[in-house]
Amino acid sequence: DSGVTQTPKHLITATGQRVTLRCSPRSGDLSVYWYQQSLDQGLQFLIQYYNGEERAKGNILERFSAQQFPDLHSELNLSSLELGDSALYFCASTLGGGLVYGYTFGSGTRLTVV
Amino acid sequence: AQKITQTQPGMFVQEKEAVTLDCTYDTSDPSYGLFWYKQPSSGEMIFLIYQGSYDQQNATEGRYSLNFQKARKSANLVISASQLGDSAMYFCAMRSGNEKLTFGTGTRLTIIP
User: Fold this and answer.
1) Which residues of A touch B (CB under 8 A)?
2) pLDDT tens digits along A39-85
3) Which tens digit of pLDDT belongs to each residue from A9-44?
4) Does A97 have pLDDT greater than 90?
5) Average pLDDT of B29-42?
6) What distances in angstroms separate CA B14 from CA A13, A54, B11, B107, one per listed residue?
7) In this complex, which of B43, B47, B101 lies closest to A108 when CB atoms are compared?
8) B-chain residue closest to A99, CA distance
9) Interface contact B100-A94, CB threshold 8 A
10) What is the torsional sign of CA B5, B7, B11, B17?
């Protein structure tokens, strides 16, 4: 157990639907990152939150949104799903604040859009 | 912009042999960190080793070592005495500038008995 918890582990949904992926960071970590891993795009950075605030944005579609709550857990919302959104979605956490610490990854949520 | 290049899509290595996985990087930031992650078929990302840009010595973690050549901007992973359980995808990643990690495309390593 890495200490980063992602739920659900697997998700199968239809095109056009909306899903929410959840991430609980390792205890004490303030930064949460979301990554998308697909066969054609590889590992793509989506978005980062630090202590509740958005810190950096990557290749995140407008149909996707995220937030980090006061208890530091984060949710990634994917709407109007398309077949191409099928991927493994990772959450990672680190202490953050500009310090060099390891990034701990969760086990991922495998999303399949049918 | 930061970029990580892994030029070996796949490698086959005999069990118990050493293997080197190549990684080159590009950044204009003088302060950066380099990471290697292992992703087995089960999908999770497992941290292997870290090298800071100002570290004087190459990082080592058990059977893993990082051959860091700063002038050549390379950070190759060396696995000594490979085992069947080492079969997996291996990703090189870099943190520079902001805190996000930029990943390479990965190398699929297969250990042959």
Assistant:
1) 2, 31, 33, 42-43, 45, 48, 50, 55-56, 58, 88, 90, 92, 94, 96, 98, 100, 102-108, 110
2) 888 899 999 999 999 999 998 999 999 999 999 999 999 999 999 99
3) 999 999 999 999 999 999 989 999 999 999 888 899
4) no
5) 93
6) 42, 46, 10, 16
7) B43
8) B99
9) no
10) negative
Q: Is the pLDDT of residue A100 over 60?
A: no
B47 touches chain A (CB under 8 A): yes
Place of tokens 């959104």: A85
What residues form DSSP beta bridges with A64? A78
Using CA coordinates, name the residue in chain B closest to A10: B43
Unique residue bearing structure tokens 């999303």: A111
* Tally of CA atoms within 13 A in the half-sphere of B49 that contains its CB: 19
